Amino acid sequence: MTPLVSSFVAHFGEMGSRWGINRTVGQIYALIFVSPRALNADEIAESLSFSRSNVSMGLKELQAWRLVRLRHLPGDRREYFEAPTDAWEVFRTLAEERRRREVEPTLTMLRSALLETPSNEEDRIAQERMRGMQELIEMLMLWFDEVQALDPATLEKLLRMGARVQKVLEFTDRLRGGASH
Amino acid sequence: MTPLVSSFVAHFGEMGSRWGINRTVGQIYALIFVSPRALNADEIAESLSFSRSNVSMGLKELQAWRLVRLRHLPGDRREYFEAPTDAWEVFRTLAEERRRREVEPTLTMLRSALLETPSNEEDRIAQERMRGMQELIEMLMLWFDEVQALDPATLEKLLRMGARVQKVLEFTDRLRGGASH
DNA sequence: CTGGAATTTCAGAAAGTCTTGAAATCCGGC
DNA sequence: GCCGGATTTCAAGACTTTCTGAAATTCCAG
User: Fold this and answer.
1) Domain residues of chain B, as ranges?
2) Maximal C-alpha separation, chain B
3) Using CB atoms within 10 A of its CB, is residue A153 exposed (0-12), middle (13-18) or buried (19+)?
4) CB proximity B122 to A under 8 Å
């Protein structure tokens, strides 16, 4: 591992642990992400000095997050892993997974709490606050559905525009046929 | 604590631990968020059955995240805590803090890695991927700066529109004086 | 000042998470 | 089917984080 890769990997280890994901998993992902070719578990264990079984666990988790893909190389029985290199695609995947794991359960809880008839003033106020939260989350999800529909190529163009929100949205509007419905 | 509040609090405990923030802190926040009035540390400790010192730590962390505000009630020496109830404001605060704690350090790392002259093909490819990541993050931050500029009242209106992205942006565009610059 | 309520700090106990090597399982090629 | 490499599972230990009660500190009221 070159110093360049090594510092990238170390950083993602730190970030992983700030975030729900653990250090090891963060490092494994970072290594695969910058690697020019798919890697097998032994190569990863070797590069990062983790036990083989730790790598196996980490890869399983990364697959559950859909952040890495399994591949087979012809004439090699081992499993190789690679990560999508398009940053936008990665971002979308992460957002989808977080939505499924965090946002949806939260909405479920909020919806069910909001169905209750408040039995006192305290609950009534609590429900008001929960309603505000629910509305925001639902709106953000609508936004996100829209943005998510943009393909990497379009995004690429937008990136190059150094877009401010209005510009970005005018642009997508044009792409999608102009008139709002 | 009513069952309604109790299930909200429990949910935020869970979510907190999925996320960097710990269970206790999540629960304390949730309790303050739905409470009709500011609470003092003893009330919180009592409601959640945490030790007084645990609550003190948790409140310190929530203050560091700027998610709760300290207040003094006339004729009472104790410190009372309340949370902004506007969901959009909370969201902005969270986003700002995460940006400061996670995004900026990542950008710093990426920028410095991208200044290096790659000494081999592997590093060259690694840098390409890092560049893609950096560009995406920088674009998202630009977007966010824009969105962040919207005040709660505007957001409120947008919420009621049930906005899809285009609509939202046309709307903000109108508010901001029409012509893009 | 001083007394005492409120808050914070801190070190150790408790709980939880991560990592490992050994054993079990899987699976393709012969 | 059987061999053997590849992968996964698992229980135990290492390590981290969280939580607590006791002690220290802060700071207001008199």
Assistant:
1) 3-82, 87-149, 151-181
2) 70
3) exposed
4) yes
If you measure CA to CA, which chain B residue comes closest to A119?
B2
Residue A109 scores a pLDDT above 90: yes
Say which of B87, B116, B121 has its CB closest to residue A4.
Answer: B116
In chain A, residues with a C-beta closer than 8 Å to the C-beta of B177 are none
Please say whether the beta carbons of B168 and B158 come within 8 A.
Answer: yes
Strand B79-82 versus strand B69-72 pairing type: antiparallel
Inter-chain contact B20–A15, Cβ cutoff 8 Å? no
Higher per-residue confidence, B154 vs B109: B109
Check residue B160 and give its pLDDT.
Answer: 57
Q: Judge whether residue B45 has pLDDT over 70.
A: yes
Give the dihedral of Cα atoms A173, A174, A177, A180; nearest 10 deg: 40
* A5-62 pLDDT, tens digit each: 999 999 999 999 888 889 999 999 999 999 999 999 999 999 999 999 999 999 999 9
CATH architecture of A3-82: Orthogonal Bundle (1.10)
Contact B167 A173 (CB under 8 A): no
Handedness of CA B50, B30, B83, A101 (dihedral sign): positive
